[in-house]
Amino acid sequence: MPKPLLNNLKTFERFKNDKKTAIVTDVDGTLSEIAPTPGEAVLTPSMKEVLLELSEKFYMVAVVSGRPVEDVMRMIGIKGLLYVGNHGMEYMKNGLIHVEEDTKRYLPLMNEAACKIKAEESCNVEGVLFEDKGLCFSIHYRLCKDPSARKILLNTLKNMEELKDLQIKEGRKIIEIRPPAGYDKGKILEKIITEHDISKLLYLGDDVTDADAFRKLNELKSQGKVDGESIIILSGEVPSKIKEDASHFLESVDDVQNFFKWLLD
User: Fold this and answer.
1) What's the rounded Cα separation, in Å, for the pair 228 and 114?
2) Residue 235 — pLDDT band, cuts 50, 70, 90?
3) Residue-range domains of the chain with CATH
């Protein structure tokens, strides 16, 4: 199980004092508080300032999110960061959006699936919010009053013919439809480490999708390819099995900001 980070700061001295350290982080639930809807989530001015200072001190600050990359860029608004969206299927570099080629061929199928889901009566549970992210399609049920909403949605999706060649994934009060191209936060993390020749790395996240990155970092660390620590931000929505793959934990977004400030001292 992960250790309390703020009680084990000595472990992180080797990152704090090395300007070649890279910091890779999720957004929602990590840099910003979880909001009722994606559009309501914001970064505080103080968090933005800390991220800017981190980017000036360390080798790299990368933001890896399930949001579309343009949305991530707009939400954070700091030049010089590496922005990755849709769980690694797209990223922004030098002001240009790059989409992984093997995902593009699934766009027609994704559009067909999105139309079918939105038209399906059993998917239109009160409180459900649909979010078309281009390469992914998300169904948010955080605002649903019916406690069986998740079960109803999953049962409906698993029986849809239009989804048989696509992936159904889950996160915090969200179900996502994705191309079966094998992209996740673990794969993009490995790509970032390899392409940028990173030797020291901190990864922060709070959701099921971040577990892929935790596991990949553990794998690369055991192989001697990178020195890293994975940090999970706890909440009542985080399944216990995900915690097992992280090395340390923080208990809130405020704790994340305080940790970042410690790195800057």
Assistant:
1) 38
2) confident
3) 3-100+183-264 (3.40.50.1000), 103-178 (3.30.70.1020)
Neighbours of 71 (CB within 10 A): 20
Residue type, 193: I
Q: How far apart are CA 204 and CA 30, in angstroms?
A: 7
Residues 17, 29: contact at Cβ < 8 Å?
Answer: no
> Tokens 């159904």 belong to which residue?
168
How much is the pLDDT for 181?
A: 73
For 236, list phi and psi in degrees, rounded to 5: -70, -15
Predicted pLDDT at 68: 94
Q: What is the pLDDT of residues 134-173, one digit of tens each?
A: 899 999 999 999 999 999 999 999 999 999 999 999 989 9
DSSP-derived pairing of the beta strands 90-93 and 82-85:
antiparallel
